[in-house]
Design a protein that fits this description.
The complex is a heterodimer of chains A (644) and B (263). By secondary structure, chain A is of the alpha+beta class. Chain A is built from 21 helices and 9 strands. Chain A has helices at 3-13, 15-39, 48-82, 84-92, 97-138, 149-169, 179-184, 197-215, 222-254, 256-259, 264-301, 305-312, 328-341, 370-379, 402-405, 446-456, 482-495, 507-546, 548-561, 565-606, 611-642, and strands spanning 317-322, 347-357, 364-369, 391-395, 409-414, 419-426, 441-444, 463-470, 502-505. Chain B has helices spanning 51-58, 81-91, 107-117, 122-136, 151-163, 181-198, 209-212, 236-250, and strands at residues 8-19, 25-36, 40-44, 66-71, 92-95, 169-173, 201-205, 217-222, 225-231. In chain B, the strands form 2 sheets. In chain B, strands 5-6-7-3-8-9 form a 6-stranded mixed beta sheet, sandwiched between helices. A 3-stranded antiparallel beta sheet of chain B has the order 2-1-4, with helices on one face. In chain B, helix 3 runs parallel beside helix 5 and helix 5 (151-163) packs parallel to helix 6 (181-198). Classes of the chains: A alpha+beta (644), B alpha/beta (263).
């Protein structure tokens, strides 16, 4: 048997230990490869949607890579510590330290290369399927499978270098004390562990503080909190797992009435040990799951976004033009042509919106002509309304402001034209997107409007045209006016849209961009979450596996002591359930509070509720986790009992 | 020596135990063995003679292949798994060679473990702990963890754990195997004290003739069969010599014989 054979057999015969680890590595390589396949896809042009997708992919790749680094380091360290007895025997038999390092290097590289090869092959096999899903989401005409060296090079390069580094660094993890210590293994390694009371309190305080703030946010401070709360909650979570939880459990151990009660004695003390071993892991799982829950929750909510989006943006296309705009006619002609070419039904109303100063508020007020508004309303199927001379109504800037304005009555003087009007109540139908005309607008009767128009006509620039296209098939307009939209976007990116004498809004296009982007991010995020999920599970499994020896002994003691099989199952449940569900539980709570505060922004942005989607997402994750829990418990119980 | 006839608490009649597996192994062969209530019995024999199997049978964690086994008036084979577990919980106490304290529990918690399973009230448990700790000289170290104990302290804790629920029988598997001679002596005196004062039956498997010399009776088995049986006399010294004599007859592996002699 050569040295290399020896290393190879070590890996193969330890396969029970390595399987979960191997699977998680393969999966993470596979997902990485899939992302890179998309990154290097030749037929992806640099359109806006693709750019965001591209960014998402790059970020996902980076997160995945960093996570894999952590995962591998943690796992390697745990593996090597678990096998310290074996290494002790090898050293005892006269193996040099240098040889031991080489042995570990070869073993790690065997696993590494195997998982890279398997992951890449699997990735390539699944990439056709992956592309199909992406194509559906992004609504690309075609996304063919291609073969190019770049994704392979990126994946293999990234992971090979990672595994090489880890293989070199790994031997450091073996405690290089006396050989005898290694042979004894980590038997005496399960005592109490230190925690800081101060940090324990701090952790609880931080969490309570962030929860309280998240729950009580209002629209005005929420933006500030977005930058402040996540770090606070993260630090709080870290302290919570490292210090608060041990501290609380220690307190609980003093409450003998609960602690010395049936299996709680065993379960709690065992829980403390597991917590000590896994606190950092739990922390990482919690944070990652929180992020996953949140992104998935937000993204999932967008699937129910369409009808609400349409309610908020009733118009199909909006073109707003200042009076000095020379391209007004050309642009409108272009839009009309494009609509006709695509055979999309529409009705167009042109508004000449006048701006006057109201003496009542000293603010500018935009004035719309009643007959225009009625015409647009009729195209939506609403009733026309009637107004006498001297009368006007508020045009609510958003749907939610209607309630405030509907009972309001104001007498005012329009300064520039010196006309008195009574503004009484609000216009009842929601025809325009929020704030798309002006934040302060009224609908004026035709007679007064003409007067204002004549008198105020001298003051140029104080009026603008507003073209409202009502398109019943609003989602079809995403190919209309692309060139105008591009110019608006360009000048917006160059610094402020005010430079252009016109503005253009295409809700159909915006909606499809938002929807596509978010579904793509959702898909990427779900894949990423799946990797984390597998990795966390593999870690818990592995921890269980390494403690199997001492657990068996413990089981033997308990069995003699007179614990029935059912009771033993209960004890195992109480040990495993917290490991599986506690980090997730904390993540649930975290994300629920995060959603509470996000709901404020969401309300302001979209006025939609995401409770239903959130419940679905959380339920889905929980189901997956329960399945995983039963799987691992089944294996664990089988192993424990097999020995006796 | 005259013996007072007492109730039989453990009774094996022609018990045979065969382990099935890749290699079939007959661990015990038609063994007859009785233990009377309040007796302190040692079981000796070379490695592989079936001592541990015998102890496991009495522990009710394995069942005989053939033959009849009665413990404290019940027949383990007739009971369901759950009832068997309850039976062990109430009637048996265990002391192991490698001590097997639960590492994550303190001394106090290790002691109280059997009681928590039976759902006693906290004040009651505390009284029992105080009693046991005082008797076993554990009072000062109740809050320590197993890895902070000396071998003797650890074994005393284990004995405390075996005793605290006042079992009928204590089963000890090489209780002095990992101890220095001073701690071993303490542990044996403790066991013998408990046996005398509480009338607790003790069955102890051991390699060590000194340990065996503390008992009322020593059973020798070889290759799963009865070999010899001797009763103690007035002086432990002569009893010890007689044990050594039987051991030398027994042959077995030289390593099984302890070369230590009493001072």
């Amino acid at each position: 048997m050569t040295f290399r054979q020896f290393a190879y057999r070590n890996v193969i015969r330890n396969r029970r230990v390595y399987t979960a680890f191997f699977m998680a590595s393969v999966f993470s390589v596979m997902v990485f490869f899939l992302y890179s396949m998309l990154l290097f896809h030749p037929s992806i042009e640099n359109r806006f949607v693709q750019e965001i997708a591209f960014m998402g992919m790059v970020i996902a790749e980076i997160i995945l890579y960093i996570f894999t680094v952590f995962f591998l380091f943690y796992s390697m360290r745990a593996f090597l510590q678990a096998r310290s007895k074996e290494f002790g025997i090898l050293l005892h038999l006269g193996m040099a330290k240098r040889q031991l390092k080489r042995l570990i290097f070869i073993e790690t590289m065997i696993i590494g290369v195997a998982s890279i090869v398997a992951g890449t092959i699997l990735g390539f096999m699944f990439s056709k399927f992956f592309f199909m899903i992406i194509r559906e989401i992004v609504l690309l005409p075609a996304l063919p499978l291609y073969f190019s060296w770049e994704p392979f090079a990126l994946t293999i390069g990234a992971f090979l270098s990672l595994f090489i580094i880890i293989s070199y660094v790994a031997p450091v993890f073996i405690r290089t004390g006396e050989v005898a210590d290694l042979i004894l293994g980590d038997a005496g390694n399960r005592g109490a562990y230190g925690y800081s009371k101060t940090r324990g309190y701090l952790g609880l305080l931080f969490l309570a503080l962030s929860y309280a703030m998240a729950a009580s946010t209002t629209n005005s401070v929420v933006i500030g909190l977005i930058f402040f709360l996540p770090p606070l909650a993260t630090v709080g979570t870290y302290y919570f797992f490292m210090d608060s939880l041990p501290f609380l459990l220690h307190k609980l151990r003093k409450r003998k009435k609960y602690y010395w009660h049936h299996f709680w004695l065993l379960s709690i003390s065992e829980g403390v040990v597991r917590l000590r071993e896994n606190a950092r892991m739990f922390f990482i799982v919690t944070i990652v799951s929180t992020v996953a829950f949140m992104s998935v929750g937000i993204l999932a909510s967008l699937t129910s976004f369409a009808s609400q989006y349409h309610e908020m943006h009733p118009l199909g296309l909006i073109y707003k033009s200042k009076s000095e705009n020379a391209q007004e006619r050309k642009h409108i002609a272009q839009l009309v042509d494009e609509l006709n070419a695509e055979q999309i039904d529409y009705s167009l109303v042109r508004f000449q919106v006048l701006e006057q100063t109201s003496t009542f508020t000293e603010n500018t007020v935009a004035i719309l002509k009643l007959s225009n508004v009625n015409m647009l309303a009729q195209s939506f199927g609403y009733q026309a309304i009637d107004m006498k001379k001297g009368q006007a109504v508020f045009l609510p800037p958003s749907a939610s402001s209607y309630d405030q304005l509907k009972n309001r009555s104001v007498k005012t003087l329009l300064q520039e034209s010196n006309i008195h009007v009574t503004i009484d109540g609000a216009y009842p139908y929601h025809l325009f997107s929020a704030y798309s005309i002006a934040s302060n607008a009224i609908v004026l009767n035709d007679a007064d409007y003409e007067l204002v128009f004549e008198k105020g006509f001298t003051q140029r620039g104080k009026s603008f045209s507003y073209y409202a296209f009502n398109v019943p098939d609003w989602q079809k307009t995403k190919e209309i006016g692309l060139s105008i939209d591009a110019k608006v976007a360009e000048s917006f990116l160059a610094g402020g849209s005010s430079d252009l004498p016109y503005s253009f809004e295409n809700p159909g296009l915006n909606y499809s961009v938002i929807r596509t982007t978010f579904s793509l991010l959702l898909f990427i995020g779900l894949l990423l979450a799946a990797v984390f999920f597998l990795a966390a599970g593999s870690f818990i499994y592995f921890r269980l596996y390494t403690s199997l020896e001492s657990d068996r002994k413990q089981f033997d003691v308990l069995r003699r002591m007179g614990i029935t099989d059912r009771e033993f199952k209960k004890i195992v449940n109480r040990q495993l359930i917290p490991q599986f569900f506690f980090p997730w539980g904390v993540a649930f709570v975290h994300s629920s509070f995060a959603f509470l505060s996000l709901q404020v922004i969401w309300d302001a942005l979209a006025e939609i509720s995401i409770v239903k989607e959130l419940v679905l997402v959380l339920a889905g994750f929980t189901l997956m986790q329960i399945f995983y829990f039963y799987l691992i418990r089944w294996r664990y119980l089988a192993h424990i009992k097999a020995s006796v | 020596m005259r013996r007072v006839k007492r109730n039989t608490i453990v009774e094996l009649t022609e018990v045979t135990k065969i382990y099935e597996g890749k290699v079939m192994h007959r661990a015990l062969n038609r063994l007859d063995f009785e233990v009377e209530e309040g007796e302190f019995v040692a079981v000796m024999g070379p490695s592989g003679s079936g001592k541990t199997t015998l102890l496991n049978l009495i522990s009710t964690i394995t069942l005989p292949t053939y033959g009849r086994l009665m413990i404290n008036g019940i027949e383990p084979e007739a009971l369901k798994q759950n009832d068997l577990a309850l039976f062990r919980r109430r009637n048996l106490g265990f002391v192991f060679q490698d001590i097997n304290l639960l590492q994550m529990l303190t001394v106090e918690e290790n002691l109280v473990l059997p009681l928590t399973l039976d759902g006693l009230s906290v004040p009651e448990m505390e009284i029992r702990i105080a009693e046991t700790a005082a008797r076993l000289d554990l009072t000062g170290i109740l809050n320590r963890r197993p890895d902070e104990l000396s071998g003797g302290q650890a074994q005393r804790t284990a004995i405390g754990r075996a005793l605290i629920h006042k079992p009928k029988i204590i089963l000890a598997d090489e209780p002095t195997g990992n101890l220095d001679s001073k701690s071993a002596k303490d542990v044996l005196e403790l066991l013998s004290h408990i046996n005398k004062n509480e009338k607790t039956t003790v069955v102890m498997v051991t390699h060590d003739p000194i340990a065996a010399s503390y008992c009322d009776r020593v059973l020798f088995i070889k290759d799963g069969e009865f070999f010899n049986e001797i009763y103690k006399d007035e002086r432990r010294q002569t009893f010890f010599q007689r044990i050594l004599n039987v051991l030398s007859l027994l042959g077995g592996n030289v390593n099984d014989l302890s070369s230590v002699r009493l001072p």
